[in-house]
Amino acid sequence: MERQSRAAIRERHSHGSPSDDPDHAYRSSAARRGSSCAPASPRQPAKRVHGTIPALCMLISCCLANEVSGWRRQAGFTPSVSSAAERTLLRHQQHRQRRQRRQGELSMNLAAGIVGLPNVGKSTLFSALTKKQVDAANYPFCTIEPNTGIVEVRDPRLSKLAELSSSQKIVFATTTFVDIAGLVKGASKGEGLGNKFLSNIRGTDLICHVVRCFDDEHITHVDGKIDPITDIEIINLELILADLQMAENIAANLNKKAKNDKQAAATLEVVKVAIEHLSAELPVRSLQTSGKLKEDDYALVSQYDFITSKPVIYVPNVKEEDLPHMDNEYVRQVREYAEAEGSQVIPISAKFEAEVAGLDEEDAQEFLDSVGLDKTGLDRLIATSFDALGLMTFLTSGEQESRAWTILKGSRAPQAAGKIHSDFEKGFIRAEVTAYADLVEHGTRVKAKEAGRVRMEGKEYVVQDGDVIVFHHN
C-alpha cells in the first residue's frame, strides 16, 4: 500500500470519529468486536479481558521474549540483542531475584521507567503503549508526575490453547511502564525536575531510555541540536552522580560500623570499589563485566539498588521515513554505544506507533503492511522489557479461560501455584506439566498423556516458560 492509502486511512479516522475524544478509536474498535464479557459458546472465539487501563488490545501480537522458547522461533521474532547484552541482563536478573527472595518481594509489581531528555518522544511513546493520553505538549517538563500504564504482553500461544480448550476468555500477562518527567543537566543537584525524576526512577526496575534520532526543525531540542550520544551521556552522567552521592553516604554509614562488624567492613571495601567506578563516570552495572569485583561481591553492591545498576534498553526514536529498517546514522551511533556497555537497542517511530495505536485492528495492519512491518516496534519493546525484568509465564487452560501467569524466572512449582491461589502453594502436592508444543501436537491433554508427554513434577521443579500446568493440592 502506498502513502496515499495511509492518507485515506488517516482521513477516515480524522473525520469518522470525534477529534476531541482520544479514546474514541479504542471504544469504536471494542464495539465492532463486541464488548460483552459474557461466556461464549464453545464455537465462538474467546473473549478478551480488558484491564482498568486500556492495553494494547489490537497491536501486541508478539511472543514473549524468552530465548529458550520454541514458539518464539516459530513466530519469527528475533530481537536485536548482542550476546554481551544478554549476559548483562541475565546477571542483573539473577542478582535482583536473589535480593527479592531475601526480602520476600515475590510480587510481580515490576516496572520499566521511560526516561529521556525533554521533547525526545517519551510521552508519545507512552501514549502508544497504553492508549492513555498524556500531556505531550512541545515544551520541557510537560510530564510533571509519572504516568503509569499497564500493558498486555500478547502471547499467540494463548489463542491456540483457547481454541483447543474452547475457552470462553483469554487473559494475557501484563507489564508496567512509567512515563517519568524529562531530565536536564544538573538534575543530580535538584535542577529542573531533578529530585522528582531521581525519586521516580529509583522506584523502577528497568530503564527504557528514549533517544531522539530524527531531525525536525518544528520540534525543539533542549540543547538546540541533535546529538544522540550527548543526550545519552547527559542522563547517564546525572544518574551516575546521583549514585555516587548515595554510595558516599552508604560508605560513611558503614565506616561507623566497620570496626566492630566484619560484614560491614567487607561491604565497605566493596562500596569503595563502586565509588571509584562511579567517579570514573561509569555505571554500576558495568562493574559486572569490569573484573573489579567477584560475583559475590557484586551481590553486596546490588543490594543497595543503585539507579545505574538497573538494566537499560535504548529506544532510538526515528521518523516514519526510516521504516521498516529503522536505521540511520543516529541509530548506528546508539547501537555502537549500547554494544560497548552490553545494553539492548529497540528502535521505534513513536509518532507512527501512536498513530497505529489509534486505529482499529484492520487499519492498523494495513498501516504496518504499508511500511513493510509485520509487528510494531512496541511489540518488540514490550516483549524485551518483560524479559529484561526477569519475568516469564506459565499457562493454564480450560473451558472457562486460558491464562498466562507471570512469575520470576527460576521460580519453583509451589511458587507458581501460589500465583493462582495461596492455598495451592500451601497445600502443594505435585504439578502436572505439559510443554506447550507437546500439547498442540497431540491436541488434548489426554492424548499427550497417552503419548507420555505429560510429566508429574514435585516441589523442586523449576517452571519453564510456556509450561501448561495443572496443580494438585490439598
UniProtKB/TrEMBL annotation:
HAMAP family: YchF_OLA1_ATPase. NCBIfam families: redox-regulated ATPase YchF. It comes from Vitrella brassicaformis. One of its GO terms (cellular component) is cytoplasm. Hydrolyzes ATP, and can also hydrolyze GTP with lower efficiency. Has lower affinity for GTP. Gene3D superfamilies: 3.10.20.30, P-loop containing nucleotide triphosphate hydrolases, TGS-like domain. Residues 237-264 form a coiled coil. One of its GO terms (molecular function) is metal ion binding. Monomer. ATP binds at residues 119-124, 318. Residues 110-368 form the OBG-type G domain. It comes from the Eukaryota. Residues 1-11 have a biased composition (Basic and acidic residues). InterPro entries: ATPase_YchF/OLA1 (IPR004396), Beta-grasp_dom_sf (IPR012675), G_OBG (IPR031167), GTP-bd (IPR006073), P-loop_NTPase (IPR027417), TGS (IPR004095), TGS-like (IPR012676), TGS-like_dom_sf (IPR023192). SUPFAM superfamilies: P-loop containing nucleoside triphosphate hydrolases, TGS-like. Residues 390-473 form the TGS domain. Residues 1-48 are annotated as: Disordered. This is Obg-like ATPase 1. Belongs to the TRAFAC class OBG-HflX-like GTPase superfamily. OBG GTPase family. YchF/OLA1 subfamily. Keywords: ATP-binding, Coiled coil, Cytoplasm, Hydrolase, Metal-binding, Nucleotide-binding. PROSITE patterns: G_OBG (PS51710), TGS (PS51880). It is found in: Cytoplasm. Its cofactor is Mg(2+).
